[in-house]
Amino acid sequence: MDEKGNFVIQPQYQKAYPFTDGVARVMADNQWVLINERGKRISKNGYQEIGEFRNGVAVVARRETGWQSGTLYGLISGKGQEVIPPLYPLLTPDPNHNVFIVGREAATGKGSRSQIQLGVMNRKGDVVVPLQFVAIREQQFRVFAVKAEDEHWQAYNATGQRIFTGTYSDIKDFDDELATVKKEGRWGILHASGREVIKPNYRGIVKRSRHSYELTGFTQWKVVNEKNEIVLSLEYEDVQPVSPQLYSYRMEGKKGCSVKRVPRLPDRSTTRFFPS
Fold this sequence. Notes:
Elements: E1 15-16, E2 24-28, E3 31-35, E4 49-50, E5 57-64, E6 70-77, E7 82-88, E8 90-93, E9 99-105, E10 116-122, E11 127-133, E12 135-139, E13 143-147, E14 153-157, E15 162-168, E16 170-172, E17 178-183, E18 186-191, E19 196-202, E20 204-209, E21 212-216, E22 221-224, E23 230-234, E24 238-243, E25 246-251, E26 254-258, E27 269-273
Antiparallel strand pairs: 1-2, 2-3, 4-5, 5-6, 6-7, 8-9, 9-10, 10-11, 12-13, 13-14, 14-15, 16-17, 17-18, 18-19, 20-21, 21-27, 22-23, 24-25, 25-26
C-alpha cells in the first residue's frame, strides 16, 4: 500500500517482505520469487528460500528431490538473474556478501562415500579459490587456508592470489601477515611471502596477540655412557632403547628409530615479539 492506504499491489501472496532497492521477496504457490515495484515477477525460477539482499545479491536455496535429495544453494542478483546457480550443498557468505565459501560434491566411484570439494567464489560468480580442496579455513574472509587431498596446506587471499604453498601438514592462527604452520610434527611461523620467520622446530605455538607468540620446545632426551658423555640427543615425545646402538622415538603417535646424533634444538618456553 502507499502512504494514502491505496493498494499498489493487490493482496495475492502467502508471504511478503518489504522492498529493498526496488525489489521485494514474496511467496507465491509455496515458492519464493522476486518482484519489482509494479508487482511484476523478475526472477525466472522459484526457490525454497531467498535470503536478505546485501551488496546487490542474495543467497537462494532450492530443494532437490529423488535419489540426490537435499538443499542446494546459489546466488541471485537484484535484477532476478542467477549469478551462481543453486548447485552447491554449501555456500557460506561473508557479512557483506563479497566472497563466499562454496562446496560441491566430488565425483566418486560407484558405492563410495561422496566428498565435498571446497573453494571460494565472489559475488560476480567468479572462482577466487579453485573448488578442489578438502578443507578450508578463513580469517575474516580476507585470507583462506586450504588443504589439498595430499594433506598439505596452502593459502590464498580474497583476490585469488596464492600467498604461499608448501609441505605443511597444518596451518592455524593466520592473518594477513603471519601464520603458524606444522611440518613433520613441529610448529613454526610463516610470513605471507612464504619466508619462515620461525623454523618448524617447536612442539607448540600459541598466538597471544597479533604479533606475540608463545613457543614451547620439545623435551630433550639424552643418552650418556658410563663416562657421562652424550652419545645420542633426541627431541621427541618419547625415547626408548631397542639395543645398545639403537633407540626408538615417537612423534604424534608414529614411531621411528635412530642410531645417529641429532642436532640440538632450543629447549625452552618463551615469548617472541614481532614489530607491527
